[in-house]
């Protein structure tokens, strides 16, 4: 019962991780730059994401521009796009697989099949967490290095936005969920290896009869 509750808790964490991963991939606020000008129509907030750049105006207007050209983007944005999409796909596969392998569900067949499914789902979550953690770290490093660069003007410097923090938290949830699923299955298999089932050996009737004959011969 404790293992089933732990798997259910890991499944809830994985759901939060999947939703956060998708939200971080689609949100446009990976970079944020607040510039308050003297003119009322001056842009006060500029946001840059993986797929689009958005601008808030002090009048309440909001405009976004999609990034159509892939080759013109920096390398870290191209890598972030690829790894975040892979993270979303792997986490979605992990949700489907662990739904079959969890102990609280009636899917997946026997115990060994359900344990294998849980282990495979845990591996998917771990990989999804790694794929989500790498681009957020790389993106944050680029933002900080540009912010500390003295040759870049202040108007071109940005700070990490909400999507970066959402990506960090989601990757942490996916990693924790994957470790819980893998460890729960591993402990069960390890217990079976350490304490194998006892086998009772009963002497055959033929051996008893042979022993009886040998005793009679000596009498």
Automatic annotation (TrEMBL):
Q: Which GO terms describe its molecular function?
A: structural molecule activity
The yes or no answer to whether the keyword Ribonucleoprotein is present is no
Chief subcellular site?
A: other
Task: Write down any Gene Ontology CC term.
Answer: bicellular tight junction
Gene3D superfamilies per the UniProt record, alphabetical:
1.20.140.150
Please report a single Pfam family linked to this protein: PMP22_Claudin
Subcellular location field: Cell junction, Tight junction; Cell membrane
* Membrane spanning stretches: 84-105, 117-141, 161-182
**Signal peptide position in this chain?**
1-24
Question: How is it placed in the membrane, per its record?
Answer: Multi-pass membrane protein
Which keywords does the record carry? Cell junction, Cell membrane, Membrane, Signal, Tight junction, Transmembrane, Transmembrane helix
Q: Could you tell me which InterPro entries the record lists for this protein?
A: Claudin (IPR006187), Claudin_CS (IPR017974), PMP22/EMP/MP20/Claudin (IPR004031)
Q: Which PROSITE patterns match?
A: CLAUDIN (PS01346)
What PANTHER family does this protein map onto? Answer: CLAUDIN
Family, per entry: Belongs to the claudin family.
- Please describe what this protein does: Claudins function as major constituents of the tight junction complexes that regulate the permeability of epithelia.
Protein name, UniProt field: Claudin
Q: Which organism is it from?
A: Regulus satrapa (Golden-crowned kinglet)
